[in-house]
Amino acid sequence: MAETANDPILLAVRGLTIGVRLQGHEFIAVDDISFALPAGRTLGIVGESGSGKSITARALMALLPRGLHISAGTILLQGTDLRTLSDRAMRRLRGTALGMIFQDPLRALDPTMTVGEQIAEAIRAHRRIGRSEQRREVLALLEAVRIPAAQKRIADYPHQLSGGMRQRVMIAIALAGRPKLLIADEPTTALDVTTQAEILDLLKQLQQELDMAMILITHDMGVAAECADRIAVMYAGRIVEEGETARVFSNPRMPYTSGLLQSVVNVDTVPRSLLHTIGGRSPSLIDMPTGCRFHTRCTASGLRCRLEASQLDGGDERHRWACWSPLAPRTVPADAVARRQVVAP
Predict the structure, then answer these.
(1) Is 38 helix (H, G, I), strand (E, B) or coil?
(2) Distance CA 262, CA 270 (A)
(3) Residue ranges per domain, the chain?
(4) Which pTM was predicted?
(5) If you placed Cys at 89, which of 37, 85, 239, 320 could pair as Cys (CB 3.0 to 4.6 Å)?
(6) What is the per-residue pLDDT across 230-282, written as a single tens digit (0 to 9) for each?
(7) Nearest-angstrom CA–CA distance, 81 and 165
(8) Where are the beta strands (DSSP E) in 82-137?
(9) 170 three-class SS
(10) Spacing of C-alpha 76 from chain mean position
């Protein structure tokens, strides 16, 4: 779905910086990132493990782990800066204006409570309704997330469900308060490809039915290509490329983005061939390189890359990149990365 100039902005993040204290020193985990998300649209945030994706998601929810804190920036949700709200006000927003699907449903769900009790608890947190109405709502949510035999599953405990079913329960809990923005942190991790496709299809359908905006955190470029209207590529705590999904994927200008795309396995991949990898490893927070943080792994880096940090000022609002040595424009099918390999169960 193409974004238009008339789409109202639901979420605007400006200059978000997240600090962490390690070994008695302050380090930057997420460095001055900005993005905007129109109502009803999907932003995919992609990158390797440790790039700052999940920390950014937790910062938006005011759920940063101990030791991390927002040191600068604004998070505007429908014009309200979430950083100015009290803990109590943020608790009210979670589940109503903001919902989140966590990466590991087995850890996020309470093993001592049935799935029905946990969904009902999420409903009660935001609405005062009677027990019979709660049960009807729980059943409706379980059916909405396509859990078969919902009437029987309502009394099951998390360990009695498959990984895909547990993820559906997490989605039901996240939707209990009918949020305007849903944050999905690696929602298909550890699921087989068939279940992944089912969960992604479910999220897209629910987004349309409920008119939600969504932030999709993933390391899977194929998943991002399939679901997101815009893409923000993160590396070592910074956004290094951002724009409309088709433009970024069909014509990546940042070498790091190109490397991620070349690593995607799809139906065109030659069987038993070696997968492309990006040499080296992501830098440590306590030993961040000067200049462009990717220059230690980039085959196109030059002197300026090693000395001066690049900004997201290449291109225009439809496609921007932070690179002193951007790749030359090229033409490839915009949907190439979305043709992900599907393995029969």
Answers:
(1) strand
(2) 13
(3) 38-62+87-97+180-338, 108-178
(4) 0.89
(5) 85
(6) 999 999 999 999 999 999 999 999 999 999 998 876 656 556 666 678 988 99
(7) 35
(8) 98-101
(9) helix
(10) 18
